Amino acid sequence: MDISDIKATITLHNGVKMPYLGLGVYKAEDGKEVKNAIHYALEAGYRLIDTAAFYDNEEGVGTAISSSNIPREDIFVTSKLWIDDQGKENTRKAFENSLKKLGFEYLDLYLIHWPVPGKFLESWKVLQKLYEDGKVKAIGVSNCLQHHLESIKDLGGIQPMVLQNEFHPKLIQQELIDYCRKNAIQYQAWSPLMRGEILDHKILKDLAEEHKKTIAQIVLRWDLEKGVASIPKSVHKDRIIENANIFDFELSPDDIQKIDALENHTRTGAHPDKFMEYFRKKGVIV
């Protein structure tokens, strides 16, 4: 993929073009905070905004995009189906509720947020129908492993265009990336900066000094050079601009190898096979 400009795109397997760098708005407060973050991002050249029903800020996201001077069709918007909304009966209703909150007639990408056992395949069938009906331009899943993707493949029909997973130098899962590449599924990173925990690593500091960049910029450039789209989240103007300033340098194969070697399978979020217990303990679901 061409990673020379923030407005350049990846072509998904159905022909839809998706920006490879976007703004994540997890934990951005609905209202002024998320609206300002999106305005900062759009001014800096971002054209992908990633939200979710669970984030409880879809209304602010929609308002910010609608009030910008950029046509809706030029902004790629993602939202996600939450755990409690999965299953045959609830999925379409949840999708329509997200559209209503955003104030849009369609979504660019809709993802199943977590693969709820016994429900996510039924939800996938509904996403396939939403796609066929033209309500969403691309569909995919989040927080899935190969066996989840295989179960979707066994269903037949439209297959995921995107897999959005936790991805950073300490959680690469190269075999899963390779599987996605083989099956024309675009890998996308959430928590690419490991919620800030990666920003004091010596190897990354050394690379940042060598390239005269910040550690965050080194990591985000590494994402893209590995063929992984990325949605770093921030509500701060200077950080949003900084995260986009990654198109005037390249990492060498040796640089990439050094970063790859940091993997130790550390997660900042739930494991895709154990997330129900994880969220119950946090009181997020019952």
**Helix and strand composition category:** alpha/beta
Order of helices and strands: EEEHEHEHEHEHEHEHHEHHH
Uncertain spans, ≥5 residues at pLDDT below 50?
none
Mean pLDDT: 97
List the strand order in the largest sheet.
3-4-5-6-7-8-9-10
Cα distance spanning the termini = 42 Å
The CATH class is Alpha Beta
Query: Count the helices. How many?
Result: 11
Most strands sheet? 8 strands, parallel
Q: What is the fold named in CATH at topology level?
A: TIM Barrel
What portion of the residues fall into strands of 2 or more residues? 5-15%
| Global shape | globular
CATH superfamily: NADP-dependent oxidoreductase domain
Q: Would you count the extended β strands for me?
A: 10
Could you say how many structural domains there are in total?
Answer: 1
Instruction: Report the CATH architecture.
Output: Alpha-Beta Barrel
Give the proportion of residues in helices. 25-40%
Site (Lowers pKa of active site Tyr): 80
Active site: 55
Keywords: NADP, Oxidoreductase
Family: Belongs to the aldo/keto reductase family.
How is this structure best summarized?
The protein is an alpha/beta fold and 286 residues long.
